[in-house]
Amino acid sequence: MTDIDFRRLDLAGREPLMPGQLSVNEAVARIVAQKATIRQERLSGIHNPWGQAIGLTDPWTFLSICESQAVVDEARSILGPDIILWDSELFPEARKYAQFLREGREGRYWPVRPLAGAIVVLSVGGANPRPEAIGLNDVQESVLDGRDPLDPIYVMRLLPGTSHFDRNPLHPAHRACMEEQVLINYANRPLWLLSGVDRANNDLVTGFSLAAPAWASGGLPAATRGET
User: Fold this and answer.
1) What sign for the dihedral angle of Cα 9, 7, 41, 150?
2) What is the pTM of this model?
3) What burial class does residue 153 get, using C-beta atoms within 10 Å of its C-beta: 0-12 exposed, 13-18 middle, 19+ buried?
């Protein structure tokens, strides 16, 4: 495992499109301070600048973690060279993720064919954090052994470039998510190709823009046109 220096993230040789305005420690601390008032579902997709987390934090800060060389290298050890990021989630307390795992929920909402992937877990509450990659079939509560249950933990969900992310809302994983995590819609989430090649014809376009204003297709609102 490779340590991450939060002060200088290496984005696998790339420059960030828009560097985060908050440091990782500051971004995490702000959310932890509000954890009693934030529903966990709102912290899903926290790396997505076009997602719901924009009202809570600076998503670019978390996207920088996902794209860091340390995370990509860890993921390659399990997934090989072709890696796609489809979700990440901050748990303000590791014990909340432990409960998630005890309930068998990791993997239940993965709309991936064939089902394959890995999570990368990163404790973001202390110094010298080290990412740890675990294959989806090996994910269990023991992955949190040795971690402080009250420390925040960041979970990144990755699929290999040989699997297809199914955006059909009728997929069983989407249906389960709609019933059990009502604030989350994975069907319209953007995907990031972190490394290698997309070999499964994934939709890498959906989700990378904000919804158009309601009046856009019908011209300007009446008041703007000078009508009364």
Assistant:
1) positive
2) 0.84
3) buried
